[in-house]
Amino acid sequence: MKKRAAVLCGAAAVVASGLTAVPAEAGAPHAPETFRATAPAWKKCGTDDYPTLQCASVEVPLDHAEPSGRTITLALSRIPHTAKKYQGPLLVNPGGPGGSGLTLAGFVAASLPKRVAAEYDVVGFDPRGVGDSRPALDCAPGHFDAVRPDPVPTSPEVERANLDRAKSFAEACGRKYGDLLPHMTTTAAARDLDVIRQALGAERINYFGYSYGTYLGTVYAKLYPQRVRRLVLDSVVDPTGVWYDSNLDQNQAFNARHRAFMDWVAKNDATYRLGTDAEKIEAAWYAMRSALKERPAGGKVGPAELEDTFVPGGYYNGYWPYLAEAFAAYVNDEDAGPLVEAYENFGATDVAGDNGYSVYTAVECRDAPWPRDWAQWRKDNWEMYERAPFMSWNNAWYNAPCAYWPVEARRPERINTTGQVPPALLFQATDDAATPYQGAVTVHRRLERSSLVVESGGGNHGITLSGNACLDRHLAAYLADGTVPRGSHGDADAVCAALPDPKPLTSKAAPGTARGSVLHGLLGSRI
């Protein structure tokens, strides 16, 4: 590590401070009377999977401190309630930031027990800047076009190439959306939720968030505790680390999941013929990475794209059989075709544009401070790389535009609620890589009267409505009548066993047929 870092000392980059200074948003919620929300005009937009889906839109202030000023449009979807007993709207969010929630509404309504789903209007929404909301951000189309520079900056030239990409992306966002970027924050998105609540005519909302959606939900509960009826948080973001520290913390956890994948491949040597020694299999994976640096597979998959392809396996082990087949074909048969196919299925980012990534950076870069001196990033990430080589540098470059972001960062919301918020229900896998376990414990302690359900031994990110009947029973009971478990299992109130690891494929099949795959396709592969 020290030798590699020393090579780069001559390329040290202190980031220029050409920032747009903007006032931080006020911490206290604005009075609901300051903006008059208009009821959505729902129209049919059903699909084969969700035929009763309806769509609409709602106007919200661009700047909630100026409610009479410019407005922007948020796209909504819903599956209407059908039961006589009505428990209000259940707003659902898949995370990101940058994830679209429109289809998630249909998935949640179809996956909950019918008697429970029938009592809610399950409402999806595209947060500001996302998907069908307008304006939608798309800072630099083609930013992830293959083949990108190697993420591991083993020379000043490689580091400079990656820094130039990060800086150009930040500059493109500033040029195209300079008027929007100051308002792309989790706090603003939480205030948007309250406008949606008003538009729906609800005194209180029920909320169900995955991944980053848990942070959005906790910020809403902090700002509007009296407006929360039920609060479900699955795979919980640690609010004390947003966002630089939390992204560093992910790296060791993803490295551990990558090694768990190698263990699984070793146990299935009869199928993959890569041996029974997980360490040697991992060495073969890194040898594949080195070979792709010299000759990208299909002209598309170099080291960066390879890591992009295998990162989703750290979110959901249902992808392991597909990734293992591609890995084995390349190593055993010198066949790059399956690897290119896996990249196109799992690794290619925003092939229709860069909306998701544009919103991700816009929110995370503005939400909280990031180091502006690249020397700090270099030091932290080389140290992390020595412990966790799998995706440390890939993750660093994914977030590196924040070092150059044209809008000054604000201070993150401090999450701490009182008895005004009804008991929340949290779900967390012990080995989740994207949102490590301790974050859920932190939020559990900060949300007074909350209950934590733990999936012991589980490594997936997004664990409810994915086939674990024990978890789903707790979810259904809570949504039915507010029941939460109260136990004494260490930090947890209830513990569910993880599902078994997947089995190798018995035939050629496209990913996405199992219910868990449907959910994880909706959640995406970055928080």
UniProtKB/TrEMBL annotation:
Keywords: Hydrolase, Signal. It comes from the Bacteria. It comes from Streptomyces sp. R17. One of its GO terms (molecular function) is hydrolase activity. The lineage of its organism: Bacteria, Bacillati, Actinomycetota, Actinomycetes, Kitasatosporales. SUPFAM superfamilies: alpha/beta-Hydrolases. It holds the Pfam family Abhydrolase_4. InterPro entries: AB_hydrolase_1, AB_hydrolase_fold, Pept_S33_TAP-like_C, Serine_prot/Carboxylest_S33. Residues 1-26 form the signal peptide. Residues 89-268 form the AB hydrolase-1 domain. This is Alpha/beta hydrolase. The keyword Signal applies.
